[in-house]
Amino acid sequence: MRKSSLKLLVDETICDGHGICAELVPEWIYLDPFGFPILREGELPFSLKEHALRAVYECPKLAIALIESPG
């Protein structure tokens, strides 16, 4: 699996637990018992980049960001 230098982040202070992100990127995001997202560690695989970008744009609270990993 080819990897990019991107990392997906969630601002837990903004997130309301709608769960749309987990529906759009289930390979990388799952929900805790209260419906809030838990992200896998590490760099996002290149194959999930488009799904991650959609999750960023579809988040009703704009609590998700896709950033370039340092290094």
Characterization of the model:
This protein has one domain (6-68): Alpha-Beta Plaits. It is 21% helix and 23% strand. The protein is built from 2 helices and 4 strands. The protein has helices spanning 20-24, 49-58, and strands at residues 6-10, 29-31, 37-39, 64-68. The model has no long low-confidence stretch (mean pLDDT 91).
For this entry, give a set of tags.
71 residues, alpha+beta, Alpha-Beta Plaits, 2 helices, 4 strands, 21% helix, 23% strand, globular
Task: Briefly characterize the structure.
The protein has helices at 20-24, 49-58, and strands spanning 6-10, 29-31, 37-39, 64-68.
Q: Approximately how much beta-strand content do the residues carry?
A: 15-25%
Number of strands: 4
Kindly give the count of domains. Answer: 1
Looking across the biggest beta sheet, what order are the strands in? 1-4
How many helices? The count is 2
Q: Mind telling me which CATH architecture this is?
A: 2-Layer Sandwich
Structural class, from secondary structure content? alpha+beta
Low-confidence stretches: none
Whole-angstrom Rg: 11 Å
Distance between the termini: 20 Å
In the CATH scheme, what's the topology name? Alpha-Beta Plaits
SSE topology:
Blueprint: E1 6-10, H1 20-24, E2 29-31, E3 37-39, H2 49-58, E4 64-68
